[in-house]
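Because discrete structure vocabularies remain unfamiliar, we turn briefly to a single example record, giving the amino acid sequence and backbone structure tokens:
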Amino acid sequence: MKRNFKLLVVLVLMAATACSFTTKNFDDPNKDKLLIDLITYVLNEGHYDAKNIDDEFSKGVYDKYLSSLDGSKRFFYQKDIEEFDKYKEKIDDQIKNKEISFFDLTYQRLLKRSKEAQDIYKKILAEPFDFSKDETIRTDYSELPYVSSKKELKERWKQQLKFSTLITYHDKKEDEKKKKEEDPDYEMKSDEELEKDARDVTLTSLNEYYDFTDDLERKDYFALYINSIVERFDPHTFYFAPQDKDRFDIAMSGKLEGIGARLQKKSDNITVMEVISGGPAWRGEELAEGDQILKVKQEDEEEPVSIVGMRLADAVELIKGPKDSKVTLTVRKKLMGNIEEITITRDVVEIEETYAKTAMVDQGDQRFGVINLPKFYFDMEDYDARNAASDIKKDIIRLKEQNMDGLVLDLRNNGGGSLKTVVDIAGLFIEEGPIVQVKSNGKRQEVLSDEDPSILWDGPLVILVNELSASASEILAGAMQDYKRAIIIGSKQTYGKGTVQNVIDLNRWLRSNEFGDVGALKLTTQKFYRVNGGSTQLEGVKSDVVVPDRYSFVDIGEKDQDNPLPWDKIEPANYNEWEGLTNYEGVISSSKQRMESNKQLQLIEDHARWIKKQSEDDSHSLNFEEYAETALRNKELAKRFDSIKNYKTNLTYRSLPYEKELFVNDTILEEKRDRWHSNLSKDVYMEEALHVLSDMMNSKKENGKLAKVED
């Protein structure tokens, strides 16, 4: 109870702030102006490090917003920018005065320029490209000036379209050569045919882009403008339009109520891209990938609604619905082309990729468990529903039933999630003690602790991380490192996100609301700190054993984002280091020695350097012979890295008994697990993690015993 109270401190603080908000009226008759007023007020009152909205702030918003609208600089003219520039230092005044004339100007101008560009690209792609000319394109568009004339704009479009077509043309020529080698009787397409095919691919790509943008409404662009403002406060403060908030909730919980299908809009058609394993559509076995949904009828309606040409988001709203309700879909089947009516009873759909997955592996006479946690998921409406902590607990119990000797917790690419789940998961590995410290602006830090003295797993523990392990992942890895409870293997440092966000329902501040749902604001309200007092902000968690990976030389961390909060430190919490591993430094030293002599890792590091060098080259020839020569040279250089993907260990991973029982009725799940196990058997990082577990087993105290569990 005490722990829950501490975890709810931030909500109480925000509720207190809410009370103060009610002294201000948000009743502007214009929804956009009301939204600007409401969001900036919440930012100023609730953000951990509120910014001064001044001329410098205005310039930052201006640059970010224009880059979002036209990053490739193929819509706006220089004269447009000169007109926009009048607002460069006045956006702050617009915000304060609830004015949106700058947004209106840019929005209307973008629509105009975008429509003009449709005529341009279609005319360009109607004519063949000449790939014999000596031309060069620069793909760092940030360095390009805006065009001053329609002639220049056409030339810019032509260069970009030519480059895109050249890439496809080259690939198609290579494919033709392979077909000829495999079948001497194969009649190769002519260069003219291949060039036409390549242009058609580019045209289709642009048409699909315009299909998407044509579906966007004014409110979508206004959300983009809003986010150009709020992201000046820090990279993780973000405005969710109503439908975006729904998607965020689904991502965090891994659950939705609907039919269980992923949809995509192609031209005017809503197409089934995937039927989610275990969902109602999957159970019914009538809806299949590639089917087109033409009409939707609710159970209380007599006539169906056509969704042909409808916005994808609007179509999805019609198709999804509450558990146990029925929806009838009029579907054109992919295989036969016939039209059928399919009635599906909606249900809660769990998106399996969201959740933790578990495997066992034998190494000699030792048996190790592997848990992959993609995110710290939870249900925002009901924490007691399925969440990362409860799943991890179940998985550890199941692994122990299979006589697990050591555990690898894989947090690679885990971007975070619920703070409470971190505390609960950390508590599975230690006796009671602090896990993380959180601090609001101007207030003393709160220590969030595990107060349950029982330990679910006291055996060897390794945590895998990389540069994309962020936020909650960094809290867990940092706490286990501070306690010397686990050995951290991975990148030089993790992502470096040391801030806490809360999602604020903006509708709660409106006394009367005639505009409908106005969305939500994900707001940075606190910073968190390790129990040793250090912040993970910018610096992340530094691995005990550093291993190179493909991200080693890529700028993807918090320090590479716009407007990150600074690093700092506070007083450490009171905690005692774990005493279950007698040779902590020795195990780390042994791992480092193995890593230094590991040729696979040396090759991965060389590959990462090569990728970095390739990405820095923004100059490309539009002459086919030169492009082909460069492509061949790069292909030959890349061959030395082919062995990376061919790496194979002698380890075999397997599912636990409870999951094998599920495979009887869910072959898709079995296929996914087989694919995961196959990838694990090629994973040099997982291989080293198991070596470290083995070393930890050998170094464990002779009298160490696994803790008993009360189920």
Residues 1-23, 701-711 have pLDDT under 50 and may be disordered.
